[in-house]
Specification:
Length: 148
């Protein structure tokens, strides 16, 4: 997540430890990255500096070093990116076909000839508006409101 960037005081003490322990790869990594994890700092403090140097003195000034966030899709191979693009296009085509196909909710409403389309319902409303009692039109508008 984050580490503590080495300040001058902390770096000086870690370099002293490195002189005493030249084979320590952990100290090499700390000096190379110029930062130390909290766990490692607490361990080193407990083993070498506790009672000798106050922890607050080692940490002044305190500066955090955050690990860079991984950028999604940055390490994808070109072939995989092409595959993802093809999948995206296929999904868009399926969505489009579903959009332009007959509305499945309206398929449940059929007459003797098959599915009732919106155009047929419109004709029915126009006919009953001019020649009907008005009840049919009210029922039709209620149908449209409920199923829109």
């Amino acid at each position: 997540m984050f580490q503590i960037r080495l300040n001058d005081e902390l770096k000086k003490h870690i370099e002293e430890l490195k002189r005493d322990n030249p084979s320590s790869t952990e100290l090499d990594d700390i000096l190379e990255t110029d930062s130390i994890s909290m766990v490692t700092l607490i361990k080193l403090y407990g083993e070498h500096w506790e009672g000798y140097i106050p922890l607050s003195q080692l940490l002044k000034p305190l500066d955090f070093q955050f690990k860079p966030k991984r950028v999604a899709r940055l390490d994808y191979k070109p072939e995989f990116k092409e595959y993802l693009e093809r999948l995206k296009i296929q999904q868009q085509e399926k969505d489009y076909q579903r959009l332009i196909s007959t509305n499945t909710e309206l398929d449940a409403y059929r007459d003797e000839e098959g599915s009732v389309t919106l155009a047929q319902m419109n004709l029915w409303f126009q006919f009953h508006l001019h020649f009907g009692t008005g009840r049919e039109v009210q029922a039709g508008w209620l149908f449209i409101i409920e199923y829109s």
